[in-house]
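Study this:
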Amino acid sequence: MQEQCYALLIDADNVSAKYIKPILTELSKYGIITYKRIYGDWTSTQHSSWKDELLTNSITPIQQFSYTQGKNSTDSAMIIDAMDILYTNDVDGFCIVSSDSDFTRLVSRLRESGKMVIGMGENKTPEPFRKACDKFTILENLMSEQNPGTSKSETTHDRRSKEKIEDAIIKMIIENQDINKPTGLGEVGSRLVSLYPDFDVRSYGYNMLSKFLEEFTRIQMVKHGNIVSVTLREDQDLKENIDSYVVQIVKKSGRSGVELSTLGNKMYEKYKDFKIRDYGYSQFNQYVKSLKHVKVEQEGTILKAVYKG
């Protein structure tokens, strides 16, 4: 598979030079950076810290004079360049680095043209710009990841409530259960980013989604081989009741056992809300095999559950 190409456009007026290495490291995870441009008035002493980083990281400075006091001409230069790059059609996506909401319409326009847009900015970045991106990354998270001892300022944007995240995951699981589909860990991650482009487990102190999900009480992860799925956490008392009920049916059937189809019908009649995937199994016979003292045997094309006390 061919690696994706990205154009990196940085607003020097709204982003500190201290973030450049984390920015480049993060973007390299998505693909090759073919354009690296930074916009600002380089005659101003305000950008002196950036000047040291430009040559080191092969970033092309684009001069934009501040013709009018209080007006940000850097925005216009970035927007014009972004559209020029878009029309060359030689990149798969853009990374817009700014904490300014003025680029919200630009991001929407790039996405309308089928380009992936990754936004990066500080915690103060307004919500409209964050939500316009396919993925938004908080720069403070990148700094704290690169320098674990770095303290991170928290704002209302820094952490979306964990309860809201858990509710969203539960909704995904229930939607998939209705169509008899398992919910994979990867799907959870991608759908959370679709819902909340600025969702990042690093905002909660984790570097892996699986570790973050272990915090929640209403969901659990189930591993089958190399596949990890996310399910509703089972009620242990209910699970024990169901297990006991199934074992008793099998035991009463004697040596001849009971057909799995019959066993399943009886169980679903008693426990109407029972869903096999809630217990980490894709098939009913797998669940039955997991029960103590029960063995699944095959007679021709018929599967039976037999008690082996």
